Amino acid sequence: MTPLPPTACLLLIDLQQAIDDPSWAAAGPRNNPGAEAHVASLLDGWRLTGRPVIHVRHNSVNPDSTYRPGQPGHDFKPEARPEPGEKIIGKETNSAFIGTGLEDYLRQCGIEILVVAGVITNNSVEATVRMAGNLSFDTWLIGDACFTFARHDLSGRLWRAEEVHALSLANLDGEYCTVTDTAAMLSRLG
């Protein structure tokens, strides 16, 4: 793979304490138990090489949400805590591009390549990646640095988290982004 340019941006989505609340796993456990370790490795690589990092923080307006500001769930997970100088973008919807100024910021900084990781694969990650692709960003999704939870479909069938995750990645790859893994992306940092 070709090396990433110095402007390639790591975009981390909703990696907050809220996602550890048991309510998210009501239909079944999450997949990718090592996702946070992969996120930490990506962050180390980006910081070591001085590439830009953006942390997307969900600021839920739903009073019952585990992501609501003013409670412990709103805090970043330890593996994904921003360092001084790293941009934090607050969002209130599932897409990091809606009502946030993210696109303008990326364009002003000359960022054309986005490397995305975070949660939930089939929700905020997927919504953000679809928009990034539609906005013509060269978007890479790190499959092993994302996770989701089991879900029931409209007929009531239960889909394991691994299945939900795999289908979400398949829907995105080649159309909105390129799906890869942590090791392959880190090898491109030079």
Q: Could you characterize what this model shows?
A:
The protein has 190 residues and is of the alpha/beta class. Helix content is 28%, strand content 21%. It has helices at 35-49, 102-108, 121-134, 161-172, 182-186, and strands at 9-13, 53-58, 87-91, 113-119, 138-147, 151-152, 158-159, 178-180. It has a six-stranded parallel β-sheet, sandwiched between helices. The chain is globular and about 45 Å long. The protein starts with 8 loop residues before the first strand and ends with a helix. The relative contact order is 0.22.
Describe this protein with a few key phrases.
190 residues; alpha/beta; six-stranded parallel β-sheet; two-stranded antiparallel sheet; 5 helices; 8 strands; 28% helix
